[in-house]
Design brief:
The chain has 155 residues and is mainly beta. The protein has one domain: Purple Acid Phosphatase, chain A, domain 2, CATH 3.60.21.10. The chain contains 2 helices and 11 strands. It has helices at 13-25, 64-70, and strands spanning 2-6, 30-33, 52-56, 75-76, 80-84, 87-91, 105-107, 115-119, 122-126, 139-144, 149-154. A 6-stranded mixed beta sheet has the order 4-3-2-1-10-11. Strands 5-6-7-9-8 form a 5-stranded mixed beta sheet, with no helix packed on it. It is globular and about 40 Å long.
């Protein structure tokens, strides 16, 4: 199963549209957003995805209720856990708030820096910032769950 990851979109509609286009073109089967959408209007582009998606709230998501409602409850307060392709995933915005629950893959954002790291049997993935506002480099990630191959892509 191929999944798409992004985080820290911070209302950058052109970059969100590029990420959605990339995910659709590359036939990802599920998309996960690791927080900091910011405003509910930024959710509209996610409706163009050809697959299901979920997300967690981040520290800059001020209109939390609006984001949850506009996303039809796809966005939740993190951490959230789910199982895809027999792998347990935890999604959280700030990994500093991670409580060490068992997971095969931990997906996080907040730092605006792409990171792929293995700690023991756990794979930690930060897709970086999709907005590019802070670093000047907008990135997303694609993960092949069967092989645990991770690609960070600049958009």
């Amino acid at each position: 199963m191929k999944i798409g990851l992004l985080s820290d979109t911070h209302d950058n509609l052109p970059k969100i549209a590029k990420a959605v286009e990339f995910f659709n073109k590359n036939r990802v089967e599920f998309v996960i957003h690791a927080g900091d959408f910011v405003a509910p209007f930024s959710i509209l582009s996610f409706e163009k995805l050809n697959c299901e998606w979920i997300g967690v709230l981040g520290n800059n998501d001020g209109e939390k209720e609006g984001l949850i409602k506009k996303s039809k409850n796809r966005i939740k307060q993190g951490p959230i856990s789910l199982v895809l392709d027999n792998k347990k995933l935890i999604v959280i915005h700030d990994i500093e708030n991670y409580d060490n629950e068992h997971a095969d893959i931990i997906i996080f954002g907040h730092t605006h820096k792409p990171e792929v790291k293995k700690i023991g049997e756990r794979l930690l993935i930060n897709p970086g910032e999709a907005s590019g506002w802070l670093s000047g480099k907008a990135t997303i990630a694609v993960v092949e769950l069967d092989s645990l191959d991770v690609n960070i892509i600049e958009i």
